[in-house]
Write a structure and sequence with these properties.
The structure is a homodimer of 243-residue chains. Chain A has seven helices and twelve strands. Chain A has 243 residues and is an alpha/beta fold. Chain A folds into two domains: 72 residues, Ribosomal Protein L25, Chain P (Beta Barrel); 154 residues, Alpha/beta knot (3-Layer(aba) Sandwich). In chain A, helix 2 packs parallel to helix 3 and helix 2 runs parallel beside helix 7. Chain A starts with 12 loop residues before the first strand and ends with a helix. Chains A and B meet through helix 2 and helix 7 of A and helix 2 and helix 7 of B.
Chain lengths: 243, 243
Amino acid sequence: MNGDAPSLSTTPRLYVAEPLTAGGMVTLAGGQAHYLGSVMRRQPGDMVRLFNGRDGEWAAAVTDVAKRSLSLQLDRQTLPQEVAADLWLVAAPLKKGRIDWLAEKACELGVARLVLVTTQRTVVDKVNLERLQAHMIEAAEQCGRTGVPDIAAPVSLDRLLRDWPAERALIFADETGGAPLAAASAPAPAAILIGPEGGFTPSERAAIRACPQAVPVSLGPRILRADTAAVAAVAVWQATQGR
Amino acid sequence: MNGDAPSLSTTPRLYVAEPLTAGGMVTLAGGQAHYLGSVMRRQPGDMVRLFNGRDGEWAAAVTDVAKRSLSLQLDRQTLPQEVAADLWLVAAPLKKGRIDWLAEKACELGVARLVLVTTQRTVVDKVNLERLQAHMIEAAEQCGRTGVPDIAAPVSLDRLLRDWPAERALIFADETGGAPLAAASAPAPAAILIGPEGGFTPSERAAIRACPQAVPVSLGPRILRADTAAVAAVAVWQATQGR
């Protein structure tokens, strides 16, 4: 699916911050060096795949393995930089475990940005953004993406709606009604808004509906948990509008 | 969404085995009696909602609370028995945690039956069917279903294909090619087949494709973990073919 030659298909795949260009060198430290050097026991000459969200995916050969660092020489680009469909997932924080699952799935399903929004019924106050980012990086490494979704620090629903970008559709699952998502949703640039486990309050729902970009949709006849709704909605949008 | 009067919307909702008919009595014991009596502290007169997979959903009033049992009198039917779209999810067992998520999500998304299939790359030997059934019952109770998916004990892929029902489409996500699921999939009666984390072997893929009912589809350009693929595929099928 990603066009790799068979010899690369089981090679480790890592997200790095450094630029990736032909003939360039990358030096890893910390956890990544430990993972490649001690856990995966990579030796000079072994291949690794790297991506950084900008330059596509590159095959690189290990050149030096030290106690706390590992160096690689870039060989060739193996994947172009992905063009993710311009879809945001806007979700209320959920309990640890469920929000982690949501972040992982959002990344696998190709979301461009994860925006956290706090609402009246949000039960979780603190969100560990670093942990969520780490989950998304790991998901990107495993699922062949060449980019990692942005993650935005939590904002209130009021603030989100007040600052909502005029060109972006705000698709939200509304139990009080809306056409089926597969038929009614809007193309990119779009966002899918999922409320907390307890749902939106009537006044919040009214405020969302009053937003000019709002597109109320139904996710079907069954009640879905917030994390299920997020994954189902993103999957349906990608299948019908995205890629 | 389920037509409840507001006063019922926060009442406990339980799956029971007993028949549910007007004027009937239901006596709960064990965990359910403890949950309603001690945890939720229901008293005589309090309302509870019951369903059994056959008779729809019924409002029932608590009549008697004892140490180890709790009795209810059925009042009226509040939901008709659902007609779930005839969709099976056929999945290889995954590690504990992920297979539990999958069972929960499959139920929320309206699957009629969960079939477990073992393949060459399946890493999990034992599956606790009771635990998975319990997850699905809990999901059905929380998401407003009036039925719980069947769960079938694991069978080998060989056996599954050999005994495959002639009238049921076998939609399977194939990385080697297939039309997009939203466009190509088949209507009910259908099944969605998801392989283990390591995927199908080439010979397994050939055997699946040789099945007359097989419908190979693509789930998009990204690699999906098995649990993500299952949820995404079921959601897309329900949005485009089901309900």
